[in-house]
Amino acid sequence: MTEKRYLVAGLGNIGPEYAGTRHNIGFMILDAWSQASNVVFSTDRYGDTATVRYKGREFVLLKPSTYMNLSGNAVRYWQQKLDIGIENLVVICDDLNLPFGTVRMRQSGSDGGHNGLKNIEMMLGSRDYARIRVGVGHEFSRGGQVDFVLGKFSEAQASMIPGIARRIISGIQTWAFAGAQKAMTELNSKTAETAIPDQAQ
Fold first, then answer.
1. Is 138 in the active site?
2. Model confidence pLDDT, tens digit, residues 32-57
3. What is 5-200's CATH topology?
4. pTM for the full model?
5. Is there a contact between 6 and 88 (Cβ–Cβ < 8 Å)?
6. Whose CA is closest to 120, among 11, 31, 3?
7. Strands ordered across the beta sheet of 57-64
8. Catalytic: which of 8, 11, 12, 23?
């Protein structure tokens, strides 16, 4: 096992009908990273993968093709295939409980009701993996959660996603080089770059 290889799983649902939806923010972050690094994803078992090399570190980006509720199948497969320890795994997902643009990283924890994280925990048999939650807001009426997460970002929000992606990519690099505590300090604060007023959403 190499200590300098990391698995970065961005969660989402495959298919053009899900492109650009709130639930797919994990995919969108990884797409931004691959584009910025001039690498392309290739389709493989359980998902699309791309490898980014940065200052002696190797980041394997994974977009599971299993759909959100079975994300753990893909994460476990690639973790085992690449012999990457759980301490070198980070998962990016949406969070309905956070305002849009808010980013929260934790080194471990509960699934918080997120079906993708729930399945990953079940398949890995552990909740001790890093996760980055990206706030997508919670402007929906009672019973409207599913439609909301499968809905698309507003134009104002979509225009800010590249800035959010840059911040998360930087945070993951910090995590790999300097550890979780420094990365959490870097990521777990709201900045003007990613914060927009509720009425603009």
1. no
2. 999 999 999 999 999 999 999 999 99
3. Rossmann fold (3.40.50)
4. 0.90
5. yes
6. 11
7. 42-44, 47-54, 57-64, 5-10, 89-95, 130-135, 103-106
8. 23
